[in-house]
Write a structure and sequence with these properties.
Blueprint lengths: L1 H14 L1 H10 L3 H19 L7 H11 L10 H14 L3 H24 L3 H12 L2 H7 L4 H22 L4 H16 L8 H8 L4 H24 L8 H13 L15 H8 L4 H6 L7 H5 L11 H15 L4 H16 L11 H4 L15 H16 L1 H4 L3 H17 L2 H20 L9 H5 L1 H13 L9
Helix pairs in contact: 1-2, 2-3, 3-6, 4-5, 5-6, 6-7, 6-9, 8-9, 9-10, 9-23, 9-25, 10-12, 11-12, 13-17, 14-17, 18-23, 22-23, 22-25
Length: about 475
């Protein structure tokens, strides 16, 4: 009987989605309704664009799974094990992508259901249309990159942290959502460790029962990730040296006005170090003000990550002791340029059809465009193209950044811990992206788009009741 009822609701939802969804939420099933809506929408997208979007980072992690001893993608161990968990048994690239989509639907549905229960209907429908079902949101969570699930998990985790600090306790649902979102927010990307801090602080701000369970969740994930990192050694290019070498080459660019006449623009030692590896002209010809990739990944380029370790240390030391301070306007201009290239989504994105070039390079059972739904593909691509044309508005991370600033300022004014515990880690993350980013990739700022779904109810509830239960500092 229950199975028949579920099928009946599903059929109604597919035939009349708006009216059926409204009926479900009004009869006390908001979470099930939103989750079903999102899973159906994401599932339909995946069926049309089977097996999802694969790019060079997707290829790298899949090759690492196939050849863990000889190939390293540079991705965190947690991401390696997550993709391996779903890909290795099936040899299907769509398996981890489908898992990501279900998890994202679960996280979004939790926030939407809570907002509906608080009678924030306008917030709910805005979030559904412009965040959860936005064409680029579906695109990123349907891409085998960690950025999509990372951005959604950050929003979900910040929402639960705010709610826990506000109410001074965690419900079983909130605790389960923290357990689900924490590893993706903190360990799926190298810069996610900052989100361990608000969870650690939350432990001391909730009641005893919540504190015990939250501490157990935090400890369990940290131990699992530590063990996983020991079992599967991985490495990344880091953040400091790539920034130093990229900006050093920027400082070498010809300046016809030659304002620096009294002092050398760069230390002679820096130039000698670079010349030992490649001619200076090779660095200059492969410099791009928007991306560092040509300096490393072009076959005929300088391949700057192959400099000997001692030379890398010299570049970093000279950068921070002399080169940076003698070229600070150029450095600041470079930071602003890359930030806005990313914020306005000018950077390159893997194409919807790029999977057909990745699949032949791996051992997989995946079939490109298995269901051959060309008409549906054209319709969805038209929607995505329209969204892409107006991405400066529809994709903007500045809504989330503006909400974040409001939450931070309001938290300072009222000494409200629930607001500060959410805004400060996100602010630190934004500052780190501005300073250290060396590629104008929109996906680095995607968390500031998705976090709007968590910050909108924060702002709405705080304006209605500024300090219901929140701790103060």
């Amino acid at each position: 009987m229950r199975g028949w009822r579920c099928r009946q609701v599903l059929n109604q939802l597919m035939q009349h989605p708006a009216s059926t969804l409204s009926t479900c939420v009004k009869t006390g099933r908001p979470f099930a309704a939103f989750f079903t809506l999102l899973v159906l929408a994401y599932g339909c997208w995946l069926i049309v664009f089977w097996p999802g979007v694969l790019g060079q980072d997707s290829l790298a992690i899949l090759l690492e799974i196939q050849k863990p001893d000889s190939f390293h993608s540079g991705k965190p161990a947690f991401w390696y094990y997550f993709v391996r968990l779903f890909y290795q048994p099936t040899q299907l690239t769509e398996a981890p992508i489908a898992a990501i989509m279900v998890l994202c639907a679960l996280i979004f549905a939790r926030i939407l259901a809570w907002c509906w229960a608080q009678r924030l209907q306008k917030t709910v429908w805005f979030a559904v249309v412009f965040i959860c079902l936005a064409p680029h949101t579906v695109y990123f969570i349907g891409t085998l990159y960690p950025d999509g699930i990372y951005s959604v998990a950050v929003a979900g985790l910040m929402f639960e942290v705010w709610l826990g600090t506000r109410d001074r306790k965690l419900s079983p649902t909130a605790l389960a959502m923290v357990a689900l979102t924490l590893p993706f927010a903190a360990f799926a990307r190298p810069n996610g460790f900052i989100f361990l801090l608000p969870v650690s602080i939350l432990i001391f701000m909730v009641d005893r029962a919540s504190r015990r369970w939250l501490g157990l969740v935090l400890l369990a994930w940290c131990v699992l990730v530590l063990v996983g990192s020991r079992m599967h050694k991985t490495s990344s290019h880091g953040a400091v040296y790539p920034l130093a070498i990229y900006e050093t080459v920027n400082f070498l660019q010809p300046r016809p006005m030659n304002l620096w006449t009294a002092e050398p623009r760069l230390l002679a030692q820096t130039i000698e170090t670079l010349q030992r590896h490649r001619p200076i002209e090779n660095y200059l010809s492969h410099y791009d003000p928007d991306y560092w990739d040509p300096l490393q990944f072009k076959e005929d380029g300088p391949r700057v990550m192959t400099l000997p370790r001692q030379d890398q240390k010299t570049v970093v030391r000279d950068f921070f002791t002399y080169n940076l301070w003698h070229n600070f306007p150029d450095f600041l201009g470079s930071r602003v340029n890359i930030f806005f290239v990313a914020a306005l989504a000018q950077g390159g994105l893997p194409g919807y059809e790029y999977s057909q070039y990745i699949i032949p390079q791996i051992e997989t059972k995946s079939v490109y465009r298995l269901f051959q739904l060309q008409k549906a593909e054209r319709v969805l691509m038209k929607s995505y193209s329209y969204s892409f044309t107006y991405r400066w508005l529809l994709w903007t991370p500045f809504l989330g950044i503006a909400l974040l600033l409001w939450v931070f300022v309001e938290g300072l004014k009222r000494r409200n811990a629930a607001l500060l515990i959410v805004s400060i880690p996100m602010g630190v993350q934004l500052g780190a992206i501005f300073i250290f980013s060396i590629a104008g990739e929109y996906r680095y700022l995607l968390p500031f788009f998705t976090v709007s779904i968590a910050l909108l109810p924060v702002v709405a509830m705080h304006r209605t009741d500024p300090s219901p239960h929140s701790a103060t500092i």
